[in-house]
Amino acid sequence: MDPTRRQARTAPRKTGGPRPAPPLGPDHDPDAGWLGRVMHVAFFLLLGASLVRFLIRHEWEDRSPWIIVLSAALAALYLLGPVLGTRATPGRIAWLCTVVAVWVVLVVLAPSFAWCAVPLFFTGLRTLPARAALVLVTLLTAFVVFAQVQLSHGGWDPNLIVAPPAVAAIATGVFVHADRQAARQRALIHDLIRTRRELAAIERREGTLAERQRLSMEIHDTLAQGLSSQQMLLQAADRTWETDPATARRHVRTAESIAERNLAEARRFVHDLAPADLAEGGGLEQALRGLAERESAVFRVDGTPVALPDRAQSALLRIAQGAFANIREHAGADSTALTLTYLDDQVVLDVADDGSGFDPAAARDGGGVRGHGLPAMRVRVQQLGGTLTVESTPGEGTVLSASIPLAPPTEAGP
C-alpha cells in the first residue's frame, strides 16, 4: 500500500476565557521583593524622621523614654517581617497585629509617627486577603485622622481630615492596580508557556508522523519492491526448472543478488544511514550507474555535474529504484533508459521504458494498475520543492521525470 501524506491537526484548547486576577496578598508580584525593600527603607526613614522631629521639637519629658523604646521595638519588629515571609500564616498575622499595636501606641504618644502608616498599608495589603487588607487600611486611616485632630495642638485643620484618606486611597489604588496588572501578566505568561509546550508536542507528533512516512516510503521503494522482484524471479525459475535449467539458475542467482542488496538495505535502516548504493562511495551517479547495469538499462548523464545534498541524492535514487521496480512488475518492457540531467537551476531524473504503459489519471484516482508507488515518489520530490511528472499511454510505454531545484551555492557546497 502506498503511503499518503498525513498532517497532525489538533483543535485549539479551550481556556474558558481570561483568568480572573488572584486576590491581593501573598507574594503574587514577581517584583514584590524589590517593592518590599523600597517600603522597608521608607518605613525606617519615616520612623527615624518622626523620632528626630519629636526629640527636636519637644523637651525631654516623661513620655520621651517610652517613645524611644517603642521606636526601637517597632524597628526591631519590622526587621522580623522578611523572616516570616509574606503569606497570611498565623505567625505573620500575629506579627502584623503586634507591629500595628506598637505603632498605635506611638501615634498616641506622638502624632508625627502617623506618617509610618503608608508602609504599613503596603504591608497589610501584601499579607492579608483583599477584604481584610482594605478593612485594615480603613481602620488605620481613621485612627490617623483621629490622632491628628484630637492630639495635635495646632487647632482644627481641614487637611488633617482630607489628607490621610487621600494618601491611603492613592496608595491602595496604586497597589491594587499594580497587583492586578501583575496577575494578568502572570496569567499571560502561563498561557504562553502552556502554548509553547503544546506547540512543541505538536511538532514532536508531526516529526513522528513524518518519520513514519519516510520509513514507509523507504520500505516500499527497497525491501517491498525487492521482495516482489524475488518472488517473480523464483516463480519464473520454478516454471522453467524442468525445461530450461540454465535460465532457472540465472533467475535464482538474480533473486539471490536482490536478496543480498535487500539485506544491506535492512541493515542501513537499523542505523538510519543513507541508501546502501550511496554508502558504497561514488555518489549518486555511481549508484544510478550500478542500478542501470543491474536492470539492463541505458544510463546517461547530461550537463555539468554539481554536488547535491544527501537528501536529494537519496530521494533521486529511491525514485529510480521504485520506477525500475514498477517496470519489472507491471510494464513488461524490452528496453529502459535512465537519464540524469544537470540544468542551471535544477537536476532532472528521467526513467523511460517501452512497456505496456498505463493511464496516469486512473492511477492517480486509485484505479487502474496496482501498486505503482507514484504517490510516494511525488511526496519525495515535493519535500525537496520539486515536481514529478508521468507521461504514459497504454501500449506506448512510460516516461517518469523527477525534477529537484538546485540549492544555492552556499548550501549545495563546492
TrEMBL record:
Keywords: 4Fe-4S, Cytoplasm, Iron, Iron-sulfur, Kinase, Membrane, Metal-binding, Transferase, Transmembrane, Transmembrane helix, Two-component regulatory system. Residues 316-408 form the Histidine kinase domain. It catalyses: ATP + protein L-histidine = ADP + protein N-phospho-L-histidine. GO terms for cellular component: cytoplasm; membrane. Its EC number is 2.7.13.3. InterPro entries: HATPase_C_sf, HATPase_dom, His_kinase_dom, Sensor_HK_TwoCompSys, Sig_transdc_His_kin-like_C, Sig_transdc_His_kin_sub3_dim/P, Sig_transdc_His_kinase_ChrS. SUPFAM superfamilies: ATPase domain of HSP90 chaperone/DNA topoisomerase II/histidine kinase. PROSITE patterns: HIS_KIN. It is found in: Cytoplasm. Signal peptide: none annotated. Residues 1-26, 393-414 are annotated as: Disordered. Its main location: cytoplasm. The chain crosses the membrane at residues 34-56, 63-81, 93-118, 130-149, 161-178. SMART domains: HATPase_c (SM00387). Residues 1-12 have a biased composition (Basic residues). GO terms for molecular function: 4 iron, 4 sulfur cluster binding; metal ion binding; phosphorelay sensor kinase activity; protein dimerization activity. Member of the two-component regulatory system NreB/NreC involved in the control of dissimilatory nitrate/nitrite reduction in response to oxygen. NreB functions as a direct oxygen sensor histidine kinase which is autophosphorylated, in the absence of oxygen, probably at the conserved histidine residue, and transfers its phosphate group probably to a conserved aspartate residue of NreC. NreB/NreC activates the expression of the nitrate (narGHJI) and nitrite (nir) reductase operons, as well as the putative nitrate transporter gene narT. This is Oxygen sensor histidine kinase NreB. It comes from Streptomyces termitum. The lineage of its organism: Bacteria, Bacillati, Actinomycetota, Actinomycetes, Kitasatosporales.
